[in-house]
Amino acid sequence: MKKILAIIGFILIVCSCFIYIFTKSGDYILALILSVLIGTLVLVMVYTISVLKNASISNYYERVMIYLFIIAFIFVIILTTGLGMTWIPSYFNSVYLLLGSMMVAAIGFYLNNRLERDRESRKVKRIIYVVNDTIKTNQNHAENLLSNGWESKKTDTLNNGFWPIFMGNIIDFDIDPQLVRDLIEIKELTYNINEQIKGRNEYLRTLYVSITPEIDLFEGYEDTNQLKRLELLNNDLSTEVEKLIHDSKLYLDKYKEFMDIN
Fold it and tell me: Among 66, 44, 73, which residue's Cα sits nearest to residue 113?
């Protein structure tokens, strides 16, 4: 509906300007060009004002700068034509300085913001690549834990060394909030699994203190409460590890296209 109204408004502005300019100049080609420029100018100004009223203007910053440049450029053409046809008094020559400054400022702001955004994008990509590699490594390690079964020996913890670095930089970068939410869930799950693995390893250490090294753990504690507790720890870990594998696969599949594009 908005597009239809915009088209109708554009046509009305062009037609009215064409009639007025043609009446003044008698040149229909000049009248057509200027009327189209004026119609475009009005549309661009209306759209720019609507964007400036938007709460999340940062998403449209570069577009606004382009539109401001277009507005100034169209004004320059109209002003040049008007002065040349003596439709506009000569003291409007000073407006050229204002329009020129406006065009230079708009291009400068646009390029500066574009360069800053490109630098930040490269930083974000480097961080996400390392995070994804960490998640993939932990996923493979978790799959190996399940496939090998929980033997009566200590287990290595998952890799969580990069998570503090990621969490320390996450506020400074413009990252999709949903991606951040998914990563935080995986991070919390990874930390939880590591705490359980450490607790299991410590419990195994206390069990081996009470038996000689040559005796198998399951033989030394057969049908005892100690062994039942170990089985509970193993079951709890299996549940958490399965969830980590599932969430990691979902995350890597979900953002694979995002990483390929960016």
Answer: 66
Q: Any idea what DSSP says for residue 214? A: T
Quick check: 145 and 155 in contact, CB under 8 A? yes
Query: Closest Cα to residue 153, out of 84, 91, 208?
Result: 208
Q: Whole-structure pTM over 0.90, yes or no?
A: no
Exposed/middle/buried for 228, CB within 10 Å: 0-12, 13-18, 19+? Answer: exposed
Rounded Cα distance between 139 and 254, Å, is 15
Convert the pLDDT of each residue in 70-103 to its tens digit.
878 877 877 777 777 666 666 667 777 777 787 8
CB 22 within 8 A of CB 28: yes
Residues 3-29: tens digit of each pLDDT: 677 777 777 877 887 787 777 777 777
Helices and strands (H, E) in the chain, number of each type: 9, 0
Task: Look up residue 150 and give its DSSP letter.
Answer: -
- Cα 32 to the chain's mean position, in Å? 43
CA pair distance 259, 128, nearest whole angstrom = 8
Domain-located, residue 253 = yes
Q: Is residue 102 part of a domain?
A: no
In the numeric block, the tokens 């320390």 are attached to 168
- Verify that 39 and 167 share a domain, yes or no: no
Residue 162 CA to residue 139 CA, distance in Å, equals: 15
- In sequence order, the 6+-apart residues with CB closer than 8 A to the CB of 22 are 28, 31
Counting the structural domains of the chain, the total is 2
Residue numbers of the domain that contains 17: 2-88
131 plus 83 within the same structural domain? no
Q: Mind giving me the DSSP string for 60-97?
A: GHHHHHHHHHHHHHHHHHHHHHHHHTT-S-GGGGGHHH
